[in-house]
Each structure stands twice: as structure tokens, then as C-alpha cells.
Amino acid sequence: MCGRYTRYLSWSEIHGLYRLTAPAEGSKQLHDRQPVILDQAYYDAWLNPATPAGDLVDVLSHDIDDQLQFHRVSRDVNATVVNKQRNDAAHFIAPFTNPT
To answer: What is the C-alpha separation between 7 and 5, in angstroms, rounded?
Structure first.
């Protein structure tokens, strides 16, 4: 599956991206789909217009799904403002445990 975002700054300057997703493997307990995070060794092949279209399926199979780790974080990470401070501090993504 693919999603597209495009921002037209002018007729000659366009910024955009495509987000590719695949069925979730390691994170399937969180969601049924996940972004394809390509192994860095395959960036050049993916971005090279000369790469044959038939080779791109193989390129996409080289993701880093088996290297991903995740843990529960505080719900504060989703707040726009917490105690009048923006939510860009490291403690917002620290592992969260329920107080007992």
C-alpha cells in the first residue's frame, strides 16, 4: 500500500514523499500494517531510475523489520502541551510502566 504527500511551493518547486506500507511482521500486535523501512545498503538501488522495475520487489524485501524494537510510552507523548512545555523531551519516549 502507498500513500502520497505533495506540497507545491511553486510551479517549479514541488516537495513530496511516498510512504510504502507492508503487512506487519514484528509489530503486528500494534497494527496490521507498518512502514517499509529499507535497509540503508539498498537506498541507491531504490532511488536509481535505472534500476529495472522487476528488481524493485527484491529491493523492497530488504527491510529492517527484524531490527525494530518497541515499548510502551506515556500518553503524554501525544499531548500538544504538557505543563506549558512542548513534548520534545527525551523522557516522553522512555519506557512506561504503570505505577502500582
So the answer is: 7
